[in-house]
Write a structure and sequence with these properties.
By secondary structure, this protein is an all-alpha fold. It is built from 15 helices and two strands. Strands 1-2 form a two-stranded antiparallel sheet. The protein is globular. 23% of the residues are buried.
Amino acid sequence: MKANSGFGSKIGKIFFTFCKYALLIFASFVALIPLVSCVVTAFKTKEEYNTTNVMTLPESWTYFENFVVAWKQANMGKAFLNSFIVMVFVLIGSTLFSSMLAYVLNRFQFRGNKLIRNLFTIATMIPGIATQVTIYQIMYSLGLVNSLAGYIILMLGTDVISIYIFLQYFDNLPKTLDEAAILDGCTYFGVFFKILLPLLKPAIVTSAILKGVSTYNEYYMANLYLQDKNRLPVVSTSLFTFTGPMGSQYNYICAGVIITVIPMLILFIFCQKQICSGMALGAVKE
């Protein structure tokens, strides 16, 4: 009986391992197929794209005309510049606002503290699209529509997720640090900027990644508030240069997609250690 039970457990483990790796392979296949087809299409001529399916390999992997056309016609140089300007201001402002708000909510007990936290939780349940009519009216009244500065202010809104990330890290920092600094004559601003903020590097990296990726990929608000696509293109809206009522030029679109992916890929390669450590530490509470 023991031999049979041991044999059965081995079969169960083998079956479980097989299912696990089969599921991982299938998930990888599903995730990689769109990227592979995009790369293949980006190197095809117009004739090849019209006469072959998306997974047929191109005749030449040195055909870079699609990338040149995508870069020039979509004005991607200016789009990257605008996206970079937006991301710099948004990341700096969002990080400061989120961390300072989390500092106040974590370190100071006052009436309404729990109410504010609950309101942030409720805010995450409200779809962003539901508030766009009101937001657009406000932006239009202030003259901030079709303005890069207005778009930056709009994207600068503090993310609730970032606030909770910083709250998590503040819970792991002992309040004795604040008390010791105050006894030495440090102000609350000094405690935050000189003592606590340098200790929040993993949280800052995590928050910046989440906010940066969402800002870089944001299309709806960029298309709605940056209406002059020739003067105010960003990366997410520049690719729609090749769409129209007569169809879409997917060979150019795929080339543009590859161009837009490269900066994020390089950033991930160089910051992989910080990204993984920041994500992991943000999920642990001592």
